[in-house]
Write a structure and sequence with these properties.
Layout: H1 2-38, H2 45-59, H3 75-91, H4 94-106, H5 116-137
Length: 138
Amino acid sequence: MKKAWNRDYVRQKTVMMTKIKQWAVALKHNVYALYLAYHHKDVPIVAKVVAVIVVAYALSPIDLIPDFIPVIGYLDDFLLVPLGIALAIWLIPEAVWKECKEKAKESTLTSLPRSKAAAVVVIGIWILTAILLIQLIN
């Protein structure tokens, strides 16, 4: 009985890891597709603004919520980025999104580039937040 439980546990863990890897690959392709959509001439300006914010944040080496904070630290990675991607996709015309998504899937992108400009923006947000908190305390 113990061996059967062990096999089931290992099988479930393997399935879960496979799903997580598939989700990560899809997320990576969606971020790259948003990057492509940003450069597309038929995308409305509002969608471009949302896309550039999401792509810049996803590629930023610095998180708005640091990962070392338990539970909340991963909230941005598992909630904010996917929600931002969903909003950007909703704003992009369907035909353009399909085209950009196909280009992203065809790409042999092995890793997404890092954005130093996005890191500066995130650091700026942290500084502004710190200033506001200091002013509220005083």
